[in-house]
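Single Protein Entry

Contents — chain, fold
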Amino acid sequence: MAKMNFNDYGRCMATYNSWQNGVLFELCEHIGDDERRLDRNMFFGSIHNTLNHLLYIDLRILGILQTGQAGAYDASTIVADDFSTLKARRSAMDDEIAAFVDAKDHGWQDEIRELQGLDGVIRKLPRQLFLMQLFNHQTHHRSQITSELHKMGLDYGITDVPLTPDLPLPLKV
């Protein structure tokens, strides 16, 4: 029987998130800029701002994964103000995440990093935890957006990980 290891987890989740981000951006492209920028009382106000936040946090977390470091957090950071640039940067980020999890060097997985959270507490955490956070954070905020799309009468479709197209299987034994 095949067993899934942490590297398999990363590859599967990178494929899943790329698929889900593609579906999300396709739907968001069809609703138009006015609907994307409408303040919907979401945590970041609009769908557009939430998409920006997702990309900003992915940049930060990937930085932690690649270097063990992250700069100061700024909640007002706008990565891309226009949708076409945001969409292109999202696709490039998904490719970069996939390349990171496909890399041959996985020595980073054994490292512990000190990081000060937004609450001011300094924690010693395994870098593996940040890969998990990257995927969890994406799912969390995508669900906020898909809820808004649902209110607009748009069907987001399937979100089940096992149904991901081109899932990198079979897993290594």
